[in-house]
Design goal:
- The complex is a heterotetramer, with two copies of chain A and two copies of chain B.
- Chain A has 13 helices and 14 strands.
- By secondary structure, chain A is of the alpha/beta class.
- Chain A has two domains: 183 residues, Rossmann fold (3-Layer(aba) Sandwich); 130 residues, 3-Layer(aba) Sandwich (Rossmann fold).
- In chain A, the strands form three sheets. Chain A has a seven-stranded mixed sheet, with helices on both faces. In chain A, strands 9-11-10-13-14 form a five-stranded mixed sheet, with helices on both faces.
- The radius of gyration of chain A is 19 Å and the shape is globular.
- The termini of chain A are far apart.
- Chain B is α/β, with parallel strands linked by helices.
- Chain B has one domain: 3-Layer(aba) Sandwich (Rossmann fold), CATH 3.40.50.970.
- In chain B, the strands form two sheets. In chain B, strands 1-2-3-7-6 form a five-stranded parallel sheet, with helices on both faces. A two-stranded antiparallel sheet of chain B has the order 4-5.
- The N terminus of chain B is likely disordered.
- Classes of the chains: A alpha/beta, B alpha/beta.
- Chains in contact: A-B, A-C, A-D, B-C, B-D, C-D.
- The complex binds thiamine diphosphate (2 copies) and magnesium ion (MG) (2 copies).
Chain lengths: 327, 341, 327, 341
């Protein structure tokens, strides 16, 4: 056990899985010599060689599509999309191909491919290096979408994703990479896909969220505890398909639900969470299901003050919890 | 341009020099004929209201079958596209399986009736699963080759697609990837001069799809798509190059689509009967039979027996497939993800 | 005024707009000589010539991207995607480019492009000719997504889309093309974007839906009226951004809400509708917000019985309304 | 391969034959120098913590400026990519505007500070809005040309992109579309031999990006990216072809990226200082100055004044831009859609 950053946890997971299984390999832009633009694959090129840590041409549809092909042969490719914003050229390969491979072949073929992609804002990335892309894909049966919120989960979920026999989109919050640190066992463990996680037990208000927002919510909960407000925090972890049971029981727990995402509001992953609650435990609610999210504008601008204005701020979350508690 | 097989008064044996026996070429022809006869039957079944949809291979059998013979049918991986009836027969799919596919029955090995006809895929035969969005299979074929390279396996990965489809981004990205990493991939474009209603000159401004090879730094070649021997030679050469580590090849089978795009299409809204009739003169099934007859490999007896054998097989397969059950309605919920038990 | 099919209404709209404004032109696969694989552009090639009714190479990203470029020059391109399933190669152009053009250029440039695409099932189309693709795009600020449910709306909404100064995705139900017929004025009229429409007034149960499902819901409502159940039917028409006010007042009207889509359930457009209601008028509800949708499987299979099993059936809708009425 | 300008003991005037006056080439040089000096200043500002990010044009100014001079700067439409500082200066953007862009201030004409630096776009100058996902601008440029053709306007549409980016599907689809419809588009690839850390030979297996032209049935040419006269000549020729209705051209400016990819990059993790030093010997800003001095067009006085003028302008612009206000925070809600009032 040692304290590791979120990105170190990612690198550990990759290293361990490559070491454990010769079929695991990494491909993407700048993942080789450069070790990735965020250094997620640091040291792997030196350790595993250029065939298993492959710098690809600048072509995301090929990265996904070649990854799918390699997965059909029996390998377990881990494809890196340099920024989640740049996954879109690969949308057809991901949605039409990877997600439908098992279904369309009636279980004859499957595509055990993991696609890693840094997402999220707060890094002066401007419109195209800050987006949350998960909602685009969070309606595609056949895909699994995973978003870890801690270094511990990052390692365990990435290992589980690589071992999963279906395609997984694995979004890593780029602001979390170096911001978040935590205990990460050196041992081999996996965190199961498809399971949300109660990150804090509470009785007054339930907050359901994922990604870096978990960190902000936990901080808010901490501060609010001093004012006597007890917050229950559910981290979705797998945001597609959702863990309905955990969502329903978290909502029932307090009867007051706040949903938080840094994605733009309309049509975000939280809409489905709200729909699940409204369909399954409406009468156990004591307050409307509130949402805190980014404004419905394309993405956060580059200029500092505009970026700030766009982002979900910790105080907003705190205020929303408080409002619900007092509701 | 539609190329025609060179015909001389005195027909000489062209297959021996390619290392093909008489038995080989007869087998080639039988596969071509199988594809043609099955295709013809499918149109009848469609017009009789027994199957809702046909996608046709007519005019492309020669290139397809010749290509299959140029590969190692016990080892290589293939990603045939929706017109490749000739290819998949030569690759080992049975007529019964094909009929099950067209009737969309549970036993269809390609997708259990989930996909439209011609969306092949058969793991047992190392045949990748095909989808409808065109050219998505190209990067998959490259991925197969990359995986084999990583594993140290000496195989070839073969993929086909239409000339219209060669304009998709995925064509470009896959070709470039394969070339940079010198992967053993054969890209074979079946240029049938139409993409639904859009003619070749509205799809591309180059002379041959294989002209694109140079931009990837790979070898390219166009051959007469009506000649299975030309297809065989080109694919064999490309496979040999691949095995020698010389990387991918881009081939163009220059041919013609003899039927409408599918049973939903009316091709007379965009091309003339004269044009189609002219193309039929170069139909590979006809011209190859002529060649085989001229060199006395296809005798009258052999031909009659072959036709008979195929017809019987088609009759039985059609009968079987028609009677075979559909998958259970509840099965639509299955295989979205791995089902462990 | 005359009775027209849904697809005739589309063709009328295109013809009228091309006639009215020289800047309107059509591009896509087989839209020229062939008049489109569904014949939506029938007769236009003959009338306006091949430059304004252009058969493009088989390349959707180019169709969208070239359309965007032409729109920047001041034209009003109407791009056809042959099937909505085949829009995905253009996802990057649609989401990263068209949707963000105005925002990223700080209002300097805009992309008045309309992208038409047939969607929906029930036509023996198998996995890739039957899908509902709207959820993928219904979270992208900058885009508008329109789905008409009647010939009248089809014409008026398409004309409004073409005249709109921002990019519009216009999904046409391919099963509706020849199935639905209705009165369509020969005159020039538009149906405003962004406005849902009450297709039937009722007092017991509110059904919110769009596309071909409107037709099924109205039929169900008709039958249920005989049993004394009064159904209020809201047709979303613009499914992004949603008409929140209309949704809220429709929900308030009866206090019992059924949402219907033929898309797969999790993460569909209806999730956002549910979230809006749960956020804004939760206490006015007398029943959980129910959803009728396709199963969470990739798409409907080709085989007849499987297609049937996958599709949302009129009886399911009727039953769900009845259940809510009796709740 | 990095090409070098041919240098002979006796330097001959090369620009006159191209129809360029001494004033023209001085103006070319001044634009190149502007781009270089601005770029250098940006790095200083970044290292001083005043701006968070720099994307650099160093090494590519010659091709960029030469290209701009080959076009009609009053009529043509352009879609420059993020390194095109030299191009946009020659196209009419001021240093002040560039500094506002880099400081991301409200007055930045490109995006009002919404986009990262180098994401150009200026309707007044017929300069399309650039985004980050590479190569998306290529189909836009084709759309401009198509629209002009529909309207009957005689203009040229010019677009640039990196060699790594030439592997994106959009490159392929755009080039093919332009070729099929013989549209007046000039595609200029600025091949600087790196895509972030990935070197040319891991991006493509062809000798020159312009080798891809033949596969589209268009004209292609590679020129020395360090020579603005070569760029001018190639672009001028391509523009002439476009005006004559001969369709698109694919050009490669063969050069080198002298700085790290951006201020976030450390290029010494993937290339050697020796390699960069070697490339610097062919730096177009240096070699073109040498040429101009050798033919006595760039005298000591002219040069000093030019440097002085540029320095002053940069100082003033930096000062201005630093002081200029950011856009109002609330403005993030604006211009998602048209705002009617
Ligand atoms: C991405 C995509 N766009 C459109 C279609 C619809 N479509 C099916 S086949 C076809 C034409 C294909 O032409 P070509 O590649 O020449 O192959 P051919 O059918 O002639 O063998 C089109 C446009 C599709 N399947 N996929
Ligand atoms: C679609 C996409 N993928 C990845 C990136 C990240 N990225 C930004 S620049 C770059 C390298 C571009 O290389 P090249 O095209 O050679 O242009 P250069 O920067 O060398 O001028 C990459 C990978 C991107 N911007 N867009
Ligand atoms: Mg074709
Ligand atoms: Mg480069």
């Amino acid at each position: 056990m040692s304290v590791r950053s979120y990105i170190e946890a990612i690198t550990m997971a990759l290293d361990e899985e490559m070491d454990r299984d010769q079929n695991v390999f990494v491909l993407g832009e700048d993942v080789g010599k450069r070790g990735g633009v965020f250094q997620a694959t640091k040291g792997l090129y030196e350790k595993y060689g250029e065939l298993r840590v492959m710098d690809t041409p600048l072509a995301e549809s090929a990265i996904a599509g070649v990854g799918i092909g390699a997965s059909l042969y029996g390998l377990r490719p881990v494809a890196e999309m340099q920024f989640s914003d740049f996954m879109l050229p690969a949308a057809n390969q991901i949605i039409s191909e990877a997600a439908k491979m098992r279904y369309r072949s009636n279980n004859d073929w499957s595509a055990p491919l993991t696609i890693r992609a840094p997402f999220g804002g707060g890094v002066h990335g401007g419109l195209y290096h800050s987006q949350s892309m998960e909602a685009i894909f969070a309606n595609i049966p056949g895909l699994k979408i995973v978003i870890p919120s801690t270094p511990y989960d990052a390692k365990g979920l990435l290992k589980a994703s690589i071992r999963d026999n279906d395609p997984v989109l694995f979004f890593e919050h780029k602001r979390a990479y170096r911001l978040l640190k935590g205990e990460v066992p050196e041992t081999d463990y996996v965190v199961p896909l498809g399971k949300a996680d109660v990150k804090r037990e509470g009785t007054d208000v339930t907050v359901i969220t994922y990604g870096l927002m978990v960190h902000h919510v936990l901080n808010a909960a901490q501060r609010l505890a001093e004012q006597g407000i007890s917050t229950h925090v559910l981290d979705l972890r797998t945001i597609y398909p959702l863990d309905k049971e955990s969502i329903i029981s978290a909502a029932q727990k307090t009867g007051k639900v706040l949903l938080v995402t840094e994605d733009t509001k309309e049509g975000s992953v939280l809409s489905e969470v709200a729909a699940i609650i409204a369909e399954n435990c409406l009468f156990e609610l004591d307050a409307p299901i509130k949402r805190v999210a980014a404004p419905d504008a394309p993405a956060m601008p580059y200029a500092g003050p505009l970026e700030q204005a766009f982002m979900v701020k910790p105080e907003q979350i705190e205020q929303a919890i408080q409002d619900l508690a007092e509701f | 341009m539609i190329q025609k097989m060179k015909q001389t008064a005195q027909v000489t044996n062209r297959h021996r020099a390619l290392g093909l026996t008489d038995q080989d070429v007869l087998s080639m022809y039988e596969n071509m004929l199988k594809a043609r006869r099955v295709d013809e039957r499918l149109w009848l079944l469609n017009r009789a209201g027994k199957i809702p949809f046909v996608v046709s291979c007519q005019g492309q059998e020669a290139a397809q079958v010749g290509a299959a013979f140029g590969l190692n049918r016990d080892k290589d991986y293939v990603a045939p596209y929706y017109r490749d009836y000739g290819f998949v027969f030569a690759w080992g799919m049975t007529i019964r399986e094909m009929m099950l596919n067209n009737f969309a029955k549970a036993e269809d090995p390609n997708s259990g009736g989930r996909q439209m006809p011609g969306h092949f895929g058969y793991r047992k035969l190392r045949m990748l699963s095909h989808s409808s969005p065109v050219t998505t299979q190209n990067p998959h074929a490259v991925g197969i080759a990359l995986a084999a390279k990583i594993k140290g396996d000496d195989i070839v990965s073969f993929v086909t697609f239409g000339e219209g489809s060669s304009n998709q981004g995925d064509f470009h990205e896959a070709a470039n990837f394969a070339a940079v990493h010198k992967l053993p991939v054969i890209f074979m474009c079946e240029n049938n001069h139409y993409a639904i209603s859009v003619s070749l000159k509205k799809q591309v401004a180059c002379a041959h799809i294989s002209d694109r090879a140079i931009g990837y730094g790979m070898y390219g070649e166009s051959f007469d798509g009506n000649d299975p021997l030309a297809a065989y030679a080109a694919v064999k050469k490309a496979a040999d190059r691949a095995h020698r580590g010389e990387g991918p090849t881009l081939l163009e089978a220059n041919g013609y689509r003899l039927m409408p795009h599918t049973s939903d299409d009316n091709d007379m809204t965009y091309r003339s009967k004269e044009e189609v009739d002219e193309a039929k003169k170069h139909d590979g099934v006809v011209t190859f039979a002529e060649y085989l007859r001229a060199i006395h490999v296809l005798t009258e007896d052999v031909e009659r027996e072959m036709e008979e054998r195929i017809r019987k097989e088609i009759d039985a397969a059609t009968n079987d497939a028609e009677k075979a059950p559909f998958a259970e309605p509840d099965s639509v919920l299955h295989y979205v993800y791995e089902e462990k038990n």
